[in-house]
């Protein structure tokens, strides 16, 4: 039986490899606290060189997702590196990225209105292996286009993030699908004020991994999973 | 455009150089000599020696007989021509077209250059004075033709010959001014034709019969009736390659091959010269004698065939071959120095100044509006919408720090939007607000953070910013414009969304 387990584990590894999940070839050493949710991912590693999809509903959830993505970017972005951020309007406020550990000078913003142009820019950026990560605020994307993105990143090892607001098509080939909702922050030991940004992070889909739901806050330059809240009993919260 | 030429002549080039090396020689008569046919012959004499009637070509022994105190030195072979070429290269500062005069001296094509010095006199004087400052005696003159300028420099006294007035200044010059061989000149003198004046009145047919066609050509060149060309020392070579086709090309595959061939030729040359393309034109000359073309530009000088080809490829559909293109022409209109970066085998961490990122930006700006691609640097302003500025280039460094001590929203509305609020007491955050028809009850709030208007840029009310959180946990950035006032209710705005 033990031998079978071993065989299964090995086969599982092989399948993962074939599906584009390379073992820890990336040298991200400091995940800024994201290790706490790593059990959800295949090989216990946050999949870099893949496309991550974030579902948003309004400006509030877009900003929460942007904050969460910036936190991840800060781990991906080593001393040198570049990020391409394709946005719809000039909404992302560059100075605020600094609070999430991303140097705004390393981000090249591309402000586009036309969805077709955004798709073109996103694909070109994902193909360029000199880029660390690409964030795209793309609402509508078809299965074929998401396949193209996935093929591009498998070759270039760029990590892609898609911010999708009220998407109609939910059939995509993205590796993960997230939903980030803002949560009421906890004051610092009962002190007045807002406290740290806090999110209800739902991992709705992850290929070859486990779904999950955490309460994460961004605190002093890293993610902190606060275990107080138990989502298992709670019904799915209404999103604003 | 009417041409203007300057001829420069150095009467004592080699001796000037010797005087520079040994300033004590300035007050002495000295000559340079070299051995020819078993005797020492003077090759150059300084002005003091020339006053003693010592001439070039004289035997050194004769000269010493005339002047026993004459100092003499061995001439350095090739010295004069070396100096001559060096000064010609230096003269590039006056005009881009500098040529060596085969008879010794320098010719400048000064067309359209002298206005930078104010006037033609100032231009020629500057040349003479600058050469003098370097220790070289020079004579220079400006005229409409090379022949006239050359003649005036050596045999005339004027500095500027007015436009179309060369005949008056030239007719009294000796026939030597015509740049003819010695035999012809000797024969002219023998015939009593000691001035150009007497030559120009003779019918050209008789002149040709007696002295050959050269004399007519020289006279015509001097008068501007026949063109004369000079060979610049630095030939301006345009970065241009062309590909004529035997058969007209009308298919995209053919055009692609032509483009690739031309790019390879151009890039090979640029690579050797350490240059890179900033803008380039690809033109096709069609059978129906029309020209079609496309243009590309890069954000960083590049001589990468693949990259440039890709940039052109995106625009190739705009090139209409119609019945076919006979001649392809590729020209780099803007060229910059290019320092090739060493290729890395194992790239650890890509950087912004990476060639690949510059190429990516080029590819993107080929299709989308280049203004849409932006990078931001911090700016020293408190007002949030002015706290950052557009970076001029991919590698521009910031001069200040990003401010992180104050909370700033991750999404900032381009223009603050008006909201209706219920605010209890002056300077307290609102209890609730309504934005886009949605009612938000404020649970927690931080603030206020007062940001004053920058009066030197814009007049207006100051802003009191509050960070508020509603029941759902969504965080907003609101502000009240101006002071709280009982009579005039201040307006409230929403300006951003926190993460």
TrEMBL record, chain A:
- Cited InterPro entries: ImuA, P-loop_NTPase
Q: What is this protein called?
A: Error-prone repair protein ImuA
Q: What is the lineage of its organism?
A: Bacteria, Pseudomonadati, Bacteroidota, Chitinophagia, Chitinophagales
TrEMBL record, chain B:
Q: Which residue numbers delimit the UmuC domain?
A: 22-149
Asked if the keyword DNA damage belongs to this entry, the reply reads: yes
Name the CDD domains for this protein.
PolY_like
Keyword entries, A-Z: DNA damage
Pfam families linked: IMS
Similarity remark: Belongs to the DNA polymerase type-Y family.
Protein name per Swiss-Prot or TrEMBL: DNA polymerase Y family protein
Q: Which organism is it from?
A: Niastella soli
